[in-house]
Amino acid sequence: MTEHVILVDAHDRELGLMEKIEAHQKGLLHRAFSIFILNDQKELLLQKRAYDKYHSGGLWTNTCCSHPRANEDIEAAAHRRLMEEMGFDCSLVKILDFVYKAEFSGGLTEHEFDHVFIGYYNQNPIVNPKEVADFKWMALDEVKKDLSENPEHYTVWFNIVFDQFYHYVKH
Q: Can 112 be counted among the known catalytic residues?
């Protein structure tokens, strides 16, 4: 099945659909979401992207991220994808939006209007090995320290949004 993304303008208004890889080759702004799951100890559930992902394979990132499908509500898409990648679902609350643009190898550019959700869960996930190579729970201050010391171990978008997420959780 060919995957499509929803092209949007700077205000997240829909402009149409485009095949996912084509949108990434052209660097066009499209709708996405990122999910951050914490446990009761305020540890963040990180995933290591599968090594054969079309970009950023083998890098650590937030719990889950993806793109909604045509005519799919952004929160419904977040719940769907959390189950597909991490094998569980939980209550989610949208906390912020951000836009970023980053170039990757292979002529791909991520240009996303990203909706960020937070949720709470206290069990280990049952990951989909096609999507996730590994996972770990990590204290927020440890994540912050490791990001500053080893940013290359993490995805570009996680490096960009983590401080905003950290500020939201700490205040």
A: yes
Q: In terms of pLDDT, which residue wins out, 7 or 56?
A: 7
Q: Give yes or no: 90 in active site.
A: no
Q: Mean pLDDT, the chain, as a whole number?
A: 95
User: Which listed residue (64, 65, 85, 110) is catalytic?
Assistant: 65
What is the pLDDT averaged over residues 138-157?
96
State the DSSP string of 3-60: -EEEEE-TT--EEEEEEHHHHHHHT--EEEEEEEEE-TT-EEEEEEEPTTSSSSTT-E
- Which tokens hold the place of 32? 């996405």
Domains of the chain: 4-170 (3.90.79.10)
- Burial string for 78-110 (b: 16+ CB within 10 Å, else e) reads bbbbbbebbebeeebeeeeeeeeebeeeeebbb
Identify the band that residue 111 occupies on the pLDDT scale cut at 50, 70 and 90.
very high
The single residue of 64, 85, 110, 112 carrying the catalytic annotation is 112
